[in-house]
Automatic annotation (TrEMBL):
InterPro entries with a match to the protein in the record: 2-oxoA_DH_lipoyl-BS, Biotin_lipoyl, GCV_H, GCV_H/Fam206, GCV_H_sub, Single_hybrid_motif
Family of the protein in this entry: Belongs to the GcvH family.
Gene name, Swiss-Prot/TrEMBL: gcvH
This protein's UniProt keywords: Lipoyl
Sequence ranges assigned to domain Lipoyl-binding in this UniProt record: 22-104
Cofactor(s) annotated in UniProt: (R)-lipoate
Organism whose genome encodes this protein: Macrococcus lamae
Name of the protein described by the UniProt record: Glycine cleavage system H protein
Modified residues annotated as N6-lipoyllysine in this record: K63
Note on how the cofactor is bound: Binds 1 lipoyl cofactor covalently.
Length: 126
């Protein structure tokens, strides 16, 4: 598994890695394992604004369709187009190949309000 150092996590099972004002967002290993085999990923367009706590896309598995909730607010500056043809990356590599969007944060304080690894582990093991 990838190093999760520096990642923050939302209660909705998204992870965020920040580099300057650019934040990379994906779903956690826990989330993908709960969903099962991912068969489709719907993501926003570059230039779209996303709002913390609001849906910004969805993932479809053989079991269900789940909305993706933005852990932070901002403008989408890059979308992982590889997921269009290879949604299985979400199951195989949730922290490396399956990042979903990169967002220019509009409120950097939102990142600090997310859970660290220990807090997320506590939530998912409860």
């Amino acid at each position: 598994m990838a190093s999760l150092e520096g990642l923050k996590f939302s209660k909705d099972h998204e992870w965020v890695k920040t580099e300057g004002n650019i934040n990379t967002i994906g779903i956690t290993d826990f989330a993908q394992s709960e969903l099962g085999d991912i068969v489709f990923v719907e993501l926003p367009e570059v230039g779209d604004d996303i709002t913390a706590g609001q849906p910004f896309g969805s993932v479809e598995s053989v079991k269900t369709v789940s909305e993706l909730y933005a852990p932070i607010s901002g403008k989408v500056v890059e979308v992982n187009s590889d997921l269009e043809d290879s949604p299985e990356f979400v199951n195989e590599s949730p922290y490396e190949n399956a990042w979903m969007v990169k967002v220019e944060a509009s409120n950097e304080d939102e990142f600090n309000e997310l859970m660290d690894q220990a807090q997320y582990d506590e939530m998912t093991n409860a």
